Amino acid sequence: MASSTKPGAKVEPLRKARPCPECGKPSAREHYPFCSDRCRTLDLSRWLKGSYAIPVAEDQSKADPLDE
Ligand SMILES: [Zn+2]
């Protein structure tokens, strides 16, 4: 019985690691493009807040006094 060494060692090619858009750390594959679940949540909540921050065009100057 000859013990053969398996040449099929999994070699992962080094992709260009994108830094986490939240903190700039190298991103983790499972949380891509973020480095962690925390940063992903942070970014998402920030994005949600941003979408809610749409200024409401309220014309306060058009208040007509109805007392004649
Ligand atoms: Zn991060």
UniProtKB/TrEMBL annotation:
GO biological process, alphabetically ordered: regulation of DNA-templated transcription
MF-aspect GO terms: DNA topoisomerase type II (double strand cut, ATP-hydrolyzing) inhibitor activity; zinc ion binding
Cofactors: Zn(2+)
Binding site for Zn(2+): C20, C23, C35, C39
InterPro entries: DNA_gyrase_inhibitor_YacG (IPR005584), Znf_NHR/GATA (IPR013088)
Signal peptide as annotated in the record: none
Function of the molecule: Inhibits all the catalytic activities of DNA gyrase by preventing its interaction with DNA. Acts by binding directly to the C-terminal domain of GyrB, which probably disrupts DNA binding by the gyrase.
Subunit annotation: Interacts with GyrB.
Protein name: DNA gyrase inhibitor YacG
Encoding gene (name): yacG
